[in-house]
From TrEMBL:
Pfam families: RNase_PH (PF01138), RNase_PH_C (PF03725)
Keyword Metal-binding included in the entry's annotation: no
CDD domains linked to this entry: RNase_PH_RRP43
Similarity-based family: Belongs to the RNase PH family.
SUPFAM superfamilies hit by this protein: Ribonuclease PH domain 2-like, Ribosomal protein S5 domain 2-like
BP GO terms, sorted: exonucleolytic trimming to generate mature 3'-end of 5.8S rRNA from tricistronic rRNA transcript (SSU-rRNA, 5.8S rRNA, LSU-rRNA); nuclear mRNA surveillance; nuclear polyadenylation-dependent rRNA catabolic process; rRNA catabolic process; TRAMP-dependent tRNA surveillance pathway; U1 snRNA 3'-end processing; U4 snRNA 3'-end processing; U5 snRNA 3'-end processing
GO cellular component: cytoplasmic exosome (RNase complex); nuclear exosome (RNase complex); nucleolus
Keyword terms: Acetylation, Cytoplasm, Exosome, Nucleus, RNA-binding, rRNA processing
Molecular function terms from GO: mRNA 3'-UTR AU-rich region binding
Protein name: Exosome complex component RRP43
Subcellular localization(s) per the UniProt record: Cytoplasm; Nucleus, Nucleolus
Domain Exoribonuclease phosphorolytic: residue ranges: 26-163, 190-253
Length: 273
């Protein structure tokens, strides 16, 4: 495994399994915690574990004036952090390439899937809107960061309750009613499913960090609950045939159902009766 890691892996792949005992199309154990058990100071939070990969997401809601050119829209600001504590490969300091690429990927998923419509975040046209700061921090990195990040973001957003805000017509000032809170309007539920490509032809799902390093490429498919394709993220590497890509999309749609079921189950368990 140390001297010839790729050959070591190939021996397992020939038998249609992986060194950790999983089949090629098998995901690692997935768990999610939503709400106060994650971050008490956030307006919404969730902790997701995908095997050893652990990601926490906290949402902070603040009030701001909308931009002049989009007076009826609020803002969503995602940020992915890969601190040095989550793996040896990351260094302290400003965000590296991988963290920046992950933040951009999350921003694209929010935009393409229309999970939150920015118009829904507007309180008073041209005067006041919500800003959602979505901080996604990796606590333990063992591959497949994108799947865990999208899952944690969705679960945390479903946990957000925004207070009622009105503008006093006499004073022109905003008034916040903390006693009356409403859940965030989430219009779509995107879920990411990542694959590693081995030797240009073989696809394995939910790769570990070691598998990502040995792979000849990776691809991430994002779908919503209607089976609609929201995003295909393929940063270089081996090309995929149309048939292989279709296979990935089909598997991603199945995975979506599993993740949505898991989120619904957890939310049901924390909702007051």
């Amino acid at each position: 495994r140390t001297v010839e890691p790729l050959e070591y892996y190939r021996r397992f792949l020939k038998e249609n399994c992986r060194p950790d005992g999983r089949e090629l199309g098998e995901f690692r154990t997935t768990t999610v915690n939503i709400g106060k058990c994650s971050i008490t100071t956030a307006d919404g939070s969730a902790l997701v574990k995908l095997g050893n990969t652990t990601v926490i997401c906290g949402i902070k809601a603040e009030l701001a004036a909308p931009a002049v050119d989009s007076a009826n829209k609020g803002y969503i600001v995602p940020n992915v952090e890969l601190p040095s504590l989550c793996a040896e490969r990351f260094r302290s300091g400003p965000p590296g390439e991988e963290a920046q690429a992950a933040s951009q990927f999350i921003a694209d998923v929010i935009e393409n899937s229309q999970m939150i419509v920015k118009e829904d975040l507007c309180i008073a046209n041209g005067k006041l809107a919500w800003v959602l700061y979505c901080d996604i921090i990796c606590l333990d990195y063992d591959g497949n960061l994108l799947d865990a990040s999208v899952f944690a973001l969705l679960a945390a957003l479903k946990n957000v309750q925004l207070p009622l805000v009105t503008i006093n017509e006499e004073t022109g000032l905003s008034e916040v009613n903390l006693k009356q809170k409403n859940p965030l309007i989430i219009r779509k539920h995107p879920v990411a499913t990542s694959f590693a490509i081995f030797d240009d032809t073989l696809l394995i799902v939910d790769p570990t960090a070691e598998e990502e390093d040995l792979a000849t490429g990776t691809v991430t498919i994002v779908t919503d609950e209607e089976g609609r394709l929201c995003s295909v993220h393929k940063p270089g590497g081996s090309p995929l045939t149309g048939a292989k890509l279709q296979d990935c999309i089909t598997r991603a749609i199945t995975r979506h159902k599993e993740v949505k079921k898991l989120i619904d189950k957890v939310i049901k368990s924390i909702t007051p009766k």
